[in-house]
Amino acid sequence: MFGDMMGMMGKLKETQQKVEETKKRMDTVLVDEKSSDDLLNVTVTASRIIKSIHIDDALLEDKEQLEDYLILILNKALDKAEGIYENEVAAVAKDGMPNIPGMDMFK
Fold first, then answer.
1. How high is the mean pLDDT of the chain?
2. Distance between CA atoms of 8 and 53, rounded to whole angstroms?
3. What is the DSSP string of 21-81?
4. Residue 79's CATH number
5. pLDDT tens profile 83-97
6. What's the average model confidence in pLDDT over 40-64?
7. Residues paired with 32 in a beta bridge
């Protein structure tokens, strides 16, 4: 039994390391989002860091419209990024969980 416990602890430590590596990798996964009329394009990482924003000159003439576009498109991009991040980290964590009877909440 003690050997099983040590094996489980080792597997948990390995899983924790894989989760951390996955989180770092999310810094390199890019998510692009653009407005339907292609006047605004944003790129964020899966770890929700804004990398670039491209604004068409036509939007620069209407501050209110630009603000609305920024809010809408940034929120869409960040929602996508969050979904990717959560799915990737959860998959790694689930894959690395030891088989403990009664603890099947991750399956």
1. 86
2. 45
3. HHHHHTTT-EEEEE-TTSSEEEEEETTS-EEEEEE-GGGGG-HHHHHHHHHHHHHHHHHHH
4. 3.30.1310.10
5. 999 999 888 887 766
6. 96
7. 43
44 belongs to a structural domain? yes
35: buried, middle or exposed (CB in 10 Å: 19+, 13-18, 0-12)? middle
Cα–Cα distance list, 26 to 19, 29, 43, 87, 92 (Å):
11, 5, 13, 11, 13
Give a yes or no: residue 22 inside a domain.
yes
Q: The domain containing residue 87 runs over which residues?
A: 2-96
2-25 vs 63-96: helix crossing angle, rounded to 10: 160
pLDDT at 19: 87
Sheet holding 50-55: strands in order across? Answer: 30-34, 40-45, 50-55
For the entire predicted model, the pTM comes to: 0.74
